[in-house]
Design a protein that fits this description.
Number of strands: 8
Number of domains: 3
Organism: Kribbella voronezhensis
Radius of gyration: 26 Å
Keywords: Membrane, Transmembrane, Transmembrane helix
InterPro entries: ARB_07466-like_C (IPR058593)
Order of helices and strands: HHHHHHHHEEHEEHHEEEE
Largest sheet: 6 strands, antiparallel
Number of helices: 11
Region (Disordered): 236-258
Structural class: alpha+beta
Transmembrane segments: 18-40
């Protein structure tokens, strides 16, 4: 690369006209050189935006494909490892969110310091040697952790990870200097998984392959199995201050009533993430004036049937409830009622729902077996 002094020495023998022409040519060469060398920079994972098969991309499982095709191919590899190990779908989701942040879900041969691969793991911190880390299946197994994995703790080695937000679970493994950046990739990870045919809602043992036993009251409680093969994530307490809001927004679910801006924002995010939903928010609820519905702070999401008699309805309700509590820290969810249980942000766990002195908890609607109730601060 030329600097100004080199350029001056190179053209001192020429006339002013030749000097100007030479300067223009060399400047153009310099710009082109910068563009050609950019993919080889070292410190920022933002370089992951380079196209597949460009310098710095290793082991592309889909040669010649687009970036998204490459991401889908690597996502399938990561999920294959998770399925083989018996891990639940949420383990795959955490891994995909992590790889999207660290490498844009590409198998990079460069990174900050000695970081390489899908998860930007470092040989110097014990993740394995460089050649091992650049093997996607090895990297995925290392991220998930366990008895056979390298020394840094992986996901299954983190006590209580199923109760954490997806962002915090990823950070517990990665120990990043930017701990809050993983959450922004959840929707893209879900989109990639959907295209790849990956089931992010499958059940499994969240500590599969771990050295020793699962932590007390974990493993069975956080992904509690039931007769439908689905389960509810336990969640965790969510702290924070949510200023009171008035109902100033027309209910986006078409009731004709008004809801708070926070409620409207939750509806938009739920529809974007969970797809088509049968949902109503504002309601007069004359029989229960203390309800959050007439205040514009609650929504009911229908699952299509009594989930006690419909595995499909149960799985859909679990999906809605799990996403809602996993994102409560960002959306301001106060409490959730579903399938005879209630979860509150301050408590962070599910407990039996008694109907609140208003509803019959054994009834499909009273016990919330046919819909998920979501209240916001």
């Amino acid at each position: 690369m030329f600097d100004e002094r080199d350029l001056g020495r190179a053209v001192t023998f020429a006339s002013r006209g030749i000097f100007l022409k030479a300067t223009g040519v060399l400047a153009l060469v310099g710009v082109v050189s910068l563009l050609m060398l950019a993919p080889f920079g070292g410190a920022s994972t933002s370089q992951a935006a380079c196209s597949p098969l460009a310098p710095g991309q290793a082991g592309d499982p889909n040669p010649g494909g687009s970036l998204r095709q490459t991401q889908i191919a690597f996502a399938k590899i990561i999920d294959e490892v998770a399925v083989q190990r018996g891990l639940p779908g949420q383990a795959t989701l955490v891994a995909l969110m992590t790889a999207l942040q660290e490498s844009q879900l590409q198998n990079l041969t460069y990174g900050s310091a000695d970081s390489v691969g899908l998860f930007q793991q470092r040989p110097s911190t014990g993740w394995g040697d460089r050649d091992q880390i650049l093997k996607p299946r090895y990297a995925a197994n290392a991220f998930f952790g366990g008895a056979a994995a390298p020394s840094p703790p992986g996901l299954v080695d983190i006590d209580g990870w199923p109760s954490m937000s997806y962002n915090d679970a990823a950070q517990a493994v990665q120990a990043s200097g930017h701990p809050d950046l993983y959450a922004q990739h959840e929707q893209e990870a879900r989109d990639i998984a959907a295209t790849a045919g990956i089931d992010l809602n499958r059940s499994g043992n969240p500590y599969a392959g771990r050295a020793g036993d699962a932590p007390p009251n974990e493993g069975n409680e956080n992904l509690a199995e039931d007769e439908c093969g689905q389960g509810l994530v336990a969640g965790k307490p969510v702290n924070g201050v949510w200023p009171e809001e008035d109902a100033t927004v027309t209910d986006p679910t078409g009731t004709g009533g008004m809801v708070t801006p926070r409620t409207a924002a939750w509806v938009a995010q739920a529809q974007k993430t969970l797809g088509t939903l049968s949902m109503t928010c504002w309601d007069a609820h004359a029989w229960n004036p203390t309800s959050d519905h007439p205040k514009g702070r609650a929504c009911d999401v229908m699952v299509g049937a009594d989930a006690r008699r419909s595995p499909t309805a149960k799985a859909r309700g679990d999906q809605i409830a799990n996403w809602t509590i996993q994102t409560a820290g960002q959306t301001g969810v106060h409490y959730v009622i579903w399938y005879g249980k209630i979860w509150s942000a301050r408590r962070g766990t599910w407990i039996p729902y008694n109907g609140g002195g208003v509803y019959n908890p054994t009834d499909a609607t009273g016990g919330h077996y046919d819909h998920v109730h979501v209240s916001l601060w």
